[in-house]
Amino acid sequence: MQFISALLIVLCGLGSADCLDCQPGWNQFQNKCYWFSHTARPWGEAEAICAGFHTKLAEPRTNDESNFLISHFQSLHDSSFYWIGISDLIEEDRWIYSSNMQTITTNYFSPGEPNQHTDANCVALWDRYHGKWADESCGHVYRFICETDVAEGDIVG
Ligand SMILES: [Ca+2]
Question: Which partner for 22 in 16, 28, 100, 118 could form a disulfide, CB atoms 3.0-4.6 Å apart?
């Protein structure tokens, strides 16, 4: 059974259509499920909405995860910005994940970004940068991306 679970994870990571490990409306990549919102909120409210579903704003930890978010973002063609769970709210110019306050382990700021200093403390994917990151004022009202781990029980079905 463990082998089947591992196989499903691999297949789902490759975008298998039979993959049912995420809830309807969520997109799977590797062992995470992502939801791209249809409504726009300030960063803090976006975080609260994710938390309301026991999830969190997306926190890409690897280049592969960042690349997945960017490619899915580009496939949507429907919004200019999407919030993710990275900010320098606590300490200027130290970009951290919201859930554990650790310094980011993958950096997809577009060249020249971040560039707005204390005026912009939250990170969004931006279509002008083909989905790479910009620092934005946290009060701006943008769509957002929530993430959650694939539940182990769901993998086995
Ligand atoms: Ca800042």
Answer: 28
